[in-house]
Hints:
The chain is an all-alpha fold. About 75% of the residues lie in helices and about 0% in strands. The chain has seven helices and no strands. Helix 2 (about 40-50) runs parallel beside helix 4 (about 75-90). This is Rod shape-determining protein MreD.
Amino acid sequence: MTLDRASGRLIVWFSLLVGLLFELMPVPDTIVPFRPDWLLLILIYWSMALPHRYNILTAFVMGTLLDVLLGAHLGIRSLAYSLVIYLIVLNFQRLRTYSFLQQTVLIGIVLCIYHLIVFWLQFLLDHSEFSNQLLWPVVSGMILWRWIYWLLRRIRRRYKVR
């Protein structure tokens, strides 16, 4: 493995670590319902950009790590991340050719699927109730997708991540 390849992988794993830290970062109670899924958005970008390298296994590992750090039931987010990233990897060539508005809508659908899977699993395990606040992160994720995509793409091109 050359030094360029190793540094590219380190950049990707560093961005995933930053996404994990953003997931764990404390925020005011008024902002909590609108907190976007930082880690999932970053995983979606890397699985669209480099699906042969960052795919379902990466999503499963990061989801398990997030479950452990959040103290949630082990496997809820890892299963949801894996299913969502599977959908992205399955259609990555189509997603790349879509316009930015179409991509944003599809990212919103994928984020909605993620939140519904997490809700369904939590309902089965804890009998949690559905609330309208469940889908606010979908809206904030759709709004932030443009900037996350732009930032990670610049990083990928500048450091020649392959």
